[in-house]
């Protein structure tokens, strides 16, 4: 099932549990605006190349729309729609004063030089600058983009609208970025895991972890699990996978990667087949890369007791059902990876106030937001007698539905 069908199916299930009116249900599902633009740039050799860029603004009932920008060859309108919809429910679950949006460009960032990436980002910004803004739609990094990408967007946007640091989050600190934003999604994932494990009488220290994806989210999550006494026994990325049953030395692996080394060449672990990564024995499995990686083919073979959805929509609905029957507990994306957008919100607040928080305050507030969402989700699970995914969806969808109704329907 594709990402949009899967996300919409989860939404409809939550809508039924909440007893929403069918007109309201339809209006919540249809995106506010879909933007598709052609971005043509000269390559370094002088030849021209075109890419398609998207920004889907899903809902703004609760505030300005918010969500990352992804650079990946598989980006298309359906996927961006699904990711934008997930942002609407995610910001609502976290009780942030935001709606949801997402953007992306169908490209392979690894095949483009730094100056080609800069030109592409600037052209994309030129095409969408009138439709984003500090109080309308605020982009941030996602897969394949980073603080540098946000710096280019900020610079290009400011040429049209004047200096506007709060138009993007996840910026470099020197340009108004927040301390702690780089690590925030991974750190939030760790707080979420800690709450879930505690409920089951377990803790990070003494548990084993497998992580798919070793970029921003996966590497920070791995590093903080390791710091807290967790044993990270296998890690995979787009180049391959490695394992060490005694635990991978995560700081040494990060150093190896920062020096340009490939995962498979790390000498503190042995290579494993990437097909086996998600079905290898462990306590906690963390998909931190692409969507749809847990599906009906591999779900029956999953041996983890807990799955923490650090990636967006990593679990297909068919896999969800199989995992539930096996007793595997799945902590859903719209809660598990919300640490990134929570600290993006803190960054936006700091930019608007013109005041900078220290990292300790950022991390402390992040923990408060993550713990509060977890308790609210558990409450919804109790009220609607449902699993954690539906607990999170009913929490988010109900907040957006209430805001929509309070605004009224009159033209
Ligand atoms: N960056 C952020 O703040 C947030 C990211 N997310 C989600 O987390 C996930 C990862 O995002 P980032 O870490 O930011 O991306 P990133 O671009 O920094 O890293 C992506 C990682 O995934 C790996 N990967 C790509 N294709 C793969 C494949 N076929 N098999 C195994 N590994 C593969 C890459 O090698 C890389 O290690 C995405 O689903 C994103 O939407 C969610 C919330 C916030
Ligand atoms: O930080 C943000 O605004 C959005 C992060 C994001 O794209 C996500 O949570 O999937």
Description:
- α1 crosses α14 and α6 crosses α13.
- Helices cover 46% and strands 17% of the residues.
- The mean pLDDT is 97.
- Among the domains are: 134 residues, Rossmann fold (3-Layer(aba) Sandwich), CATH 3.40.50; 150 residues, NAD(P)-binding Rossmann-like Domain (Rossmann fold), CATH 3.40.50.720.
- Strands 9-8-7-6-10-11-12 form a seven-stranded mixed sheet, sandwiched between helices. Strands 1-2-4-3-5 form a five-stranded mixed sheet.
- The protein is of the alpha/beta class and 411 residues long.
- It starts with a helix and ends with a helix.
- α7 links the parallel β6 and β7.
- It contains 14 helices and twelve strands.
- Bound molecules: 1,4-dihydronicotinamide adenine dinucleotide and 2-oxoglutaric acid.
Question: Characteristics of this structure?
Answer:
seven-stranded mixed β-sheet; binds 1,4-dihydronicotinamide adenine dinucleotide; alpha/beta; Glu/Leu/Phe/Val/Trp_DH; single chain; oxidoreductase; five-stranded mixed β-sheet; Rossmann fold; binds 2-oxoglutaric acid; NAD; 411 residues; Glu/Leu/Phe/Val/Trp_DH_dimer; 14 helices; NAD(P)-bd_dom_sf
């Amino acid at each position: 099932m594709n990402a949009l069908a899967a996300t919409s199916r989860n939404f409809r299930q939550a809508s039924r549990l909440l007893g929403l009116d069918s007109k309201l249900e339809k209006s919540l599902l249809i995106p506010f605006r879909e933007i598709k633009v052609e971005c043509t740039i000269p390559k370094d050799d002088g030849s021209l190349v075109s890419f398609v860029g998207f920004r889907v603004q899903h809902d703004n009932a609760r505030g300005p729309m918010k969500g990352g920008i992804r650079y990946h060859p598989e980006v298309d309108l359906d996927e961006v729609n699904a990711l934008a919809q997930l942002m609407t429910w995610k910001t609502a679950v976290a009780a942030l004063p935001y709606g949801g949006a997402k953007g992306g460009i169908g490209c392979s960032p690894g095949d483009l030089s730094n100056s080609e990436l800069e030109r592409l980002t600037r052209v994309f910004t030129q095409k969408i600058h009138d439709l984003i803004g500090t109080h309308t739609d605020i982009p941030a990094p996602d897969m394949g983009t980073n603080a540098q990408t946000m710096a280019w967007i900020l610079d290009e946007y400011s040429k049209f609208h004047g200096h506007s640091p709060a138009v993007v989050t996840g910026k470099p600190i020197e340009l108004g970025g927040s301390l702690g934003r780089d690590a925030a999604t991974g750190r939030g994932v760790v707080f979420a895991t800690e709450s879930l494990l505690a409920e089951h009488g377990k803790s990070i220290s003494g548990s084993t972890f497998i992580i798919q994806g070793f970029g921003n989210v996966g590497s920070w999550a791995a590093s903080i699990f390791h710091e807290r006494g967790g044993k990270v026994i296998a890690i995979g990325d787009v180049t391959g996978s490695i394992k060490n049953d005694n635990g991978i030395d995560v700081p040494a692996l990060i150093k190896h990667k920062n020096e340009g080394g490939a995962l498979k060449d790390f000498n503190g672990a042995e290579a494993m087949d990437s097909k086996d990564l998600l079905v290898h024995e462990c306590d906690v499995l963390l998909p931190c890369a692409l969507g749809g990686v847990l599906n009906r083919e591999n779900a029956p073979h999953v041996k983890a007791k807990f799955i923490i959805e650090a990636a967006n929509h990593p679990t297909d609905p068919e896999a969800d059902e199989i995992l539930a029957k096996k007793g595997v507990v799945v902590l859903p994306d719209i809660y598990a990876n919300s640490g990134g957008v929570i600290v993006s919100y803190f960054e936006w607040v700091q930019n608007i106030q013109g005041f900078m928080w220290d990292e300790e305050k950022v991390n402390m507030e992040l923990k408060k937001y993550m713990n509060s969402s977890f308790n609210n989700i558990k409450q919804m699970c109790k009220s609607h007698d449902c699993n954690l995914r539906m607990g999170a969806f009913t929490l988010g969808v109900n907040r957006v539905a209430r805001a929509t109704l309070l605004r009224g329907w009159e033209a």
